[in-house]
Amino acid sequence: MQFLEAAFKAEMSPEYLEDNIHRMAQYFLAADNFEKTASTARAYLQFWEDGRYRADMQRLCAHALGQLKKNEEGVKIRRNLIRENPENLIGATGRLDRAVSYYMHKDYIKAQNICRELAGSKFDEVAAPSLFMLSYYSLEQRRIDDAILYYNILKEGYPHAVGLDDLIDRFSNLNESPANYEAEHITGTVYSIQAGVFSVKGNAYSLKDRLKQYGKPVEVKKKTISEKEYYVVYVGRFVSSKQAMTFKARLETHEKEVYQVVAR
């Protein structure tokens, strides 16, 4: 950062100046110097109105302003970023940033609506973190069924996604008890282990065939989520949640996965 600043003050060649200022903004952000990140990004946007790094600088500036609690200005810049890039990755990333901001301000409904839309994005760089956040913040709100559902969709679509291990750790730390799964008594209610959610039918039936070895009935049911069809794998039909939880623990030990007991 010191070398970059020194080069800037030495009136470096114009052909390198744009790259230099872009890199300076990145370094200021890495150092958590949000004031200089914002001021450098603003200067770039004023000097290079149609510069090569315009979208990236808009994103850096909006993020820094958010950290400085200058939310109104940050929102305006992010809105421009999204409007100027409606169909490409940077625009989708701007929408993802907007969702993160909503989550940070505990506006969960707006954040989750954006993430549900982005979960079906053609850009993997946006779809995977959207699914992660849907699962993560469902856990924060103790909506365990939703958290497991989005975790399973993330795991199937992006098996090497950053964050999967973190979600597993958070599931493992839940204080589970039969009371978590007890529903109002309704005649005929049974409990099953939800073992997987798949967009590809064949993947669901492959898991079904593998789980038959545990001696319990395995079913595949079609479910529509955000206008998209998924195939949910259920194991067992237990008359009480306590029985289902006991079997879930056995299944998780053998399969080294995280599952959920659901009332059906």
SSE topology:
Blueprint: H1 2-9, H2 14-30, H3 34-47, H4 54-67, H5 71-84, H6 89-104, H7 108-118, H8 124-140, H9 144-157, H10 164-172, E1 191-198, H11 201-211, E2 218-225, E3 228-238, H12 241-255, E4 260-263
Antiparallel strand pairs: 1-3, 1-4, 2-3
Helix pairs in contact: 1-2, 2-3, 3-4, 4-5, 4-6, 5-6, 6-7, 6-8, 7-8, 8-9, 8-10
Structure description:
The protein is α+β, with helices and mostly antiparallel strands and 264 residues long. It folds into 2 domains: 2-172, Serine Threonine Protein Phosphatase 5, Tetratricopeptide repeat, CATH 1.25.40.10; 179-263, Alpha-Beta Plaits. It has helices spanning 2-9, 14-30, 34-47, 54-67, 71-84, 89-104, 108-118, 124-140, 144-157, 164-172, 201-211, 241-255, and strands at residues 191-198, 218-225, 228-238, 260-263. A 4-stranded antiparallel sheet has the order 2-3-1-4. A hairpin with a 2-residue loop joins strand 2 (218-225) and strand 3. The protein starts with a helix and ends with a strand.
